[in-house]
Structure formats: structure tokens, C-alpha cells
Design brief:
Layout lengths: L5 E6 L7 H11 L3 E6 L3 H4 L2 H8 L10 H7 L1 H7 L2 E7 L1 H9 L5 H8 L4 E5 L3 H5 L1 H12 L3 E2 L3 E4 L5 E5 L3 H17 L6 E6 L4 E4 L2 E3 L6 H12 L3 E6 L11 E4 L3 H11 L5 E4 L6 E3 L18 E3 L3 H7 L5 E8 L3 H11 L4 E6 L11 E8 L2 E9 H17 L1
Helix pairs in contact: 1-3, 1-10, 5-7, 6-9, 11-15
This protein binds ligand PMT.
């Protein structure tokens, strides 16, 4: 498949800059037009001539250069792009982007860009693990930037750990998928309702029962549905994530509040995706005062909550209803049982309580089931996985 797209590749100053030459070659092989922007320190690692030869276009590096601005000004360059990929993105560049600094061409282009932005970080493992880098990355993710990698392995500094830039072939594959998705507008004009995050079931004014859901999977689905052209409403349990401004977010705390928020909106929607980890049981009584410590053992009486997903599927005017199944064992059997028992159109099953994936991780894998079919979506970042699931939902919806 040839992609007739314009890709702006930003390169910052890390040893992984040499890998980006291969990325340009791969993207051009797929039919993309590529323009390259380099920071001053990137040019210390690799010559702009390499990228000029590979991309077939002059390399841009200076913000305040009258000739370059006349040829294609930085605002026009930002407008020209269908997608901006920054690879490698150093810790310094990531910090600049997350704070909105614009003191060179690449950081200014990032601010001026209205197209989707993807970044492939590359740095020493300790720099990647540093709290301030984590905060900067979280902030960029909240602002809708897709983070690719980094990968684990040997590093140029001689250490081993997370920090290697993803391989060009993987970045290229990811970008092709993102561009294809961007192009499809498969949910254009459709209303999509998504639940995300945990619920909190209060025991007394200071304590509650909850679970490990971070909301990342649900928020990624909301982003993916938005990118696919949908009008998205997100019913969110208590999480620390922020959704883009053009998603309507309704914040709730308990399973009962989530039930009301979902059921009152569901009949209007084309699709409902229940990604929230809703409490199955809630304390039968919320004590009005703090429960005092007394006996060695104590009892809490729990009451079943209403099953939001099953109730949505029972509505006369029901949306295409997609559930999740979070399981620690017998994944397929339990997921299939939920699909049939709750009369769902589709169910996405994931392992939880294991080392990789599921709750509160950056990655996940899904086994998706519907009446006469199934598809496995391999372990990958939740953003990419969400796009694959939205694609699958759009496909099933059409049939
Ligand atoms: O939030 P993250 O940290 O990114 O983690 C993602 C995730 C693991 C939470 C997510 O991928 C996931 O699996 N969500 C569903 C978790 C869950 O509650 O699974 P379950 O098997 O217990 O419930 C089955 C389905 O019924 C779910 O769609 C759930 O939303 C729904 N349900 C459950 C109980 C209830 N009272 N009402 C419901 O609607």
C-alpha cells in the first residue's frame, strides 16, 4: 500500500539519530513525502547531507534564516505536514515540548503543528526513569502526543535498560497504521460513549473500596474514537488523566453514579464501550461517621451493584455494545460467557494481575470476541491498541 502523505521528521541530538536515516528510507519506500528538521545538536551526530540525499528535500534547521523562511516558512512547514514524528526525541527536547518552549525550529514547529504528533524517545535508562522525565512524558500524553517506545536493551553508554529508540521498521509500521487510521474517519459523525477508570465505593467518610484501574485504556479509546471522527463522551471514574478539550468528560466516583451517567446517555449513542473497572459490589451501608477500630476481625456487608453494561445491552434503543473482560484465569471462557450472558455485540478480554499489560501499565494485549468471530490484538502501547480496537468496532458496525 503506497501512502500519499507528507511526513515531517524532527531529529534531536542523540546517538540514535543515525537510525532516523533508515526511517526516512523506509517511509519514502512506502510512498510518503518526507521533510527533515534537525536541531543544532542533531547535526553534531549526523550530517544534514545524509537526510537531504535520502529525503530528496533540503533539510531545515534554523528558525531565524531569511532564505529558509522565504523558501518555506516554519508556519507553512508545520501546515504542510500530515504527521510530525520526532525521532529521536531527547530528554531535553521532551522537556522543552512539555513546557511549550519554542527556542529553535523544531520546538517552534511542534507548537505550530496542528497535525498528529508522535515521538520516539531515546536516552540513557536513568534519564528515562527520572521523575521529571516521567512527568514530562505524562504531560505530553495528556496533550494527545503518541509516545513510541523506548525499548529495552543495550545502550550506547554501555548500560542495559529502557531507553533505546524503537527500531525504524517498528516506527515506520506504527506511522503507517496511524496514517491509515487518520485517513479512515471511520466513525465520522457517530456518537460514542466510553466508560473509563475505577469506581470508588465508600465505607465511611474517609475510606472506600476501589481497584487498580488507571483509566489509560479507556482514555486511549476515547482519543482513538475522536481521531476516527466520532463525537465522544467519556464517563470517567477518579483518575489523574486529562482528555483533549473536544471530548466531553463526565466525572463520577461510584458505580451508582457511573450507572446513571451511562444509562441516561446510552439510548442516544451509536456505540458504547465499557472499559471502566466498575465495582461488582459496594458496601451495603455507608457509615456516616469514621468506623472505629475495635475487634480483631470485622465484617463489611457488600451489596451487588447494577451491571451497567448488561443494562445498556437491554435498552430498546441500544448502541453497539462493547464490553471488556478483565481476568486472572480462564480468559477466553469467561469472556465468551460475558459476551453471551450480557448479550453484547463484542467483548475485549485482557489478562490482569500479571507482570505485563492490563491494569495501570502503558501496554496491553486483547483477545476480542464477537458472535461468529474473534481477533487477537498483540501486546502494544494502549494508544495503538485502542486504534486497532476502534478499527475492529467500525468494521463490525458496518456489517
Ligand atoms: O484503566 P487501565 O489501568 O488502563 O486498565 C485497563 C483495564 C484492565 C481496566 C481495562 O482494559 C478493562 O479490562 N476494563 C474492564 C474491567 C472490568 O471491570 O472487567 P470485568 O470483567 O469485571 O467486567 C466486565 C464488563 O462489565 C466490563 O466492561 C465492565 O465495565 C462491565 N461492568 C462490570 C460491573 C458493573 N457493575 N457494571 C459494568 O458495566
Amino acid at each position: 500500500m503506497a501512502i500519499n502523505k507528507r511526513i515531517l521528521l524532527g531529529i534531536s541530538g542523540g546517538i540514535a539519530a543515525y537510525k532516523s536515516a533508515e526511517l526516512v528510507r523506509l517511509l519514502r519506500k512506502q510512498g510518503a513525502e518526507v521533510r527533515v528538521v534537525m536541531t543544532q545538536s542533531a547535526m553534531e551526530f549526523i550530517s544534514p547531507l545524509t537526510f537531504q540525499a535520502l529525503s530528496g528535500n533540503p533539510v531545515h534547521s534554523e528558525l531565524l534564516n531569511a532564505d529558509a523562511e522565504n523558501a518555506m516558512g516554519h508556519i507553512n512547514l508545520a501546515r504542510w505536514a500530515d504527521l510530525l514524528i520526532i525521532a529521536p526525541a531527547t530528554a531535553n527536547l521532551i522537556a522543552k515540548l512539555s513546557h511549550g518552549l519554542a527556542d529553535d525550529l523544531l520546538s517552534t514547529l511542534y507548537l505550530a503543528a496542528t497535525c498528529p504528533v508522535h515521538i520516539a524517545p531515546a536516552m540513557n535508562k536513568a534519564m528515562w526513569a527520572k521523575a521529571v522525565t516521567r512527568e514530562n512524558i505524562d504531560k505530553l500524553q495528556r496533550h494527545g502526543i503518541t509516545i513510541l517506545g523506548p525499548e529495552q536493551g543495550d545502550q550506547a553508554c554501555g548500560e542495559t535498560g529502557f531507553g533505546r529508540m524503537s527500531e525504524p521498521v517498528d516506527i515506520c509500521r506504527h506511522l503507517l497504521q496511524a496514517l491509515e487510521f487518520q485517513n479512515s474517519s471511520r466513525l465520522k459523525g457517530l456518537k460514542v460513549l466510553i466508560s473509563a477508570g475505577p469506581t470508588r465505593e465508600p465505607l465511611d467518610p474517609v475510606r472506600y473500596i476501589t481497584n487498580r484501574s488507571s483509566g489509560k485504556m479507556g482514555y486511549a479509546l476515547a482519543n482513538a474514537a475522536l481521531k476516527a471522527g466520532a463525537e465522544v463522551t467519556l464517563i470517567s471514574g477518579p483518575v489523574i488523566l486529562t482528555a483533549p478539550a473536544n471530548i466531553e468528560v463526565v466525572k463520577v466516583e461510584t458505580a451508582a453514579q457511573m450507572y446513571e451517567a451511562v444509562i441516561s446517555r446510552a439510548p442516544d449513542q451509536a456505540i458504547y464501550i465499557g472499559a471502566a473497572a466498575v465495582a461488582d459490589y459496594s458496601p451495603a451501608i455507608m457509615q456516616p461517621e469514621k468506623i472505629k477500630k475495635q475487634d480483631e476481625q470485622t465484617m463489611i456487608i457488600l451489596q451487588k451493584t447494577r451491571d451497567i453494561l448488561a443494562e445498556v445491552a437491554k435498552l430498546d434503543k441500544r448502541p453497539f455494545t462493547v464490553g471488556f473482560a478483565a481476568e486472572t484465569h480462564k480468559l477466553e471462557a469467561y469472556a465468551r460467557d460475558k459476551l453471551t450472558r450480557k448479550k453484547l455485540d463484542m467483548i475485549a478480554a485482557n489478562w490482569v494481575g500479571r507482570e505485563l499489560g492490563g491494569f495501570d501499565s502503558e501496554q496491553n494485549a486483547l483477545q476480542v470476541f464477537w458472535k461468529n468471530g474473534q481477533k487477537n490484538l498483540a501486546m502494544t502501547g494502549k494508544e495503538q491498541l485502542a486504534e486497532q480496537l476502534i478499527d475492529l468496532i467500525a468494521e463490525r458496525l458496518q456489517e
